[in-house]
Amino acid sequence: MSRLEAVPGRVLMAVGPLLLGAVLICIPAVLSNYGPHVFASRWFELLYVPLRLGGAALAAFPAFEYRPLIVAIVMFFATGIGLFVFPAAIERVALRDRGVVTRCEVTAVHVHTRTDSENRTKTSYDHELRCADPRLTAITTRGAGARQEEWRDVRFDPTGRSDPHWATAATDPSALLWIGVTILAAAAAHRLIGEFLLN
Predict the structure, then answer these.
(1) Could you tell me the CA-to-CA distances from 53 to 10, 31, 58, 83 in Å, in that order?
(2) What is the mean pLDDT of the segment spanning 17-28?
(3) Helix, strand, or coil (residue 172)
(4) What does pLDDT average to over the chain?
(5) C-alpha angle 45/50/53, rounded to 5°?
(6) Helix, strand or coil, per DSSP, at residue 111
(7) Strand order through the sheet with 121-131
(8) What is the pLDDT of residue 199?
(9) CA Rg, the chain, in Å?
(10) What span, in angstroms and rounded, lies between the C-alpha atoms of 27 and 37?
(11) pLDDT of residue 21
(12) Quick one: which H or E segment has residue 166?
C-alpha cells in the first residue's frame, strides 16, 4: 500500500477516537433529556458515569501518541475536561425548549461550603422557594445566591429532567458549542500534524 493510499486510515486512527469519545460523552445528556423518562432516573445516572469517563479517556489519552510532549499534555487536559461543554449545551437546549418561567419568593437560603482534595473551597446555595407555579419549590445554585424574601423569576423543566435556573441565566448554547468545536478542532489539528508532519 502506498503512503497516499494509507492517508484515510491514518486520518481515521488519529481523529476517530477523539470524535467517538465526544459522542460517548454526549449520549447520557441526549438520553436523559430527550429519551424515555426512565433514562433520567438515578439508576441510569449511575450507568452514565463510566460512559462519560470512558468517552473522556478515549478522546484524551491518544494525545500522548503525538509530539511535542508539552502540547500533548495541554491537549490531554483540554480535551478530557473541555468536551463536557457539549452535554452542558444539550441541557441548555432542553431547558430552553421545555422551560417554564415562574415568579418565586425566596423563603430561605442555606449555604453549603466544602473543600476538595486540592484544598479549593466550593460554595453552593440551596434556596427554598414559594412560587406561582407550585411544582417548583427549590433551586440550587453555585454562583451568588439570592437573598431571603427576594423575588426572582425562575426557569424550570416541568418534566424534572433539567435543573432549574434563574430566568436571567443563559439558555443559548452557542457559546458552549463554540468552545467545544474549538477544542475538537485544536485536538484534531494537533493529532493530524503529529501524524503527517512529525512522525
Answers:
(1) 25, 16, 9, 11
(2) 95
(3) coil
(4) 88
(5) 115
(6) strand
(7) 138-141, 121-131, 100-115, 151-156, 165-166
(8) 60
(9) 21
(10) 15
(11) 95
(12) strand 165-166
Amino acid in position 37: H
Cell, residue 174: 452557542
* 152-172 pLDDT tens trace: 999 999 988 888 989 887 678
Distance CA 139, CA 184 (A): 33
Which residues on adjacent β-strands are paired with residue 114?
A: 122
Average pLDDT over residues 51-71: 89
Residue length, the chain?
199
Residue range 110-143, pLDDT digits in tens? 988 888 766 778 888 999 999 999 999 999 998 7
**Alpha carbon 174 to chain centroid distance?**
13
Instruction: Give the three cell numbers for residue 120.
Output: 479549593
31 closest CA partner among 20, 21, 19, 43: 43
For 69, which DSSP code?
Answer: H
> 32: burial class by Cβ within 10 Å (0-12, 13-18, 19+)?
buried
pLDDT score at 5: 52
Q: Taking the domains of the chain in order of start, what are their residue ranges?
A: 7-96+173-198, 103-156
Main-chain dihedrals φ then ψ at residue 101, nearest 5 degrees: -100, 130
Residue 154: CB partners within 8 Å, gap ≥ 6?
101, 102, 103, 104, 129, 131, 136, 139, 164, 165, 166, 167
DSSP state of 185: H
Q: Give the relative orientation of helices 174-193 and 85-98 as an angle to the nearest 10 degrees.
A: 160
Predicted TM-score of the model (pTM)? 0.79
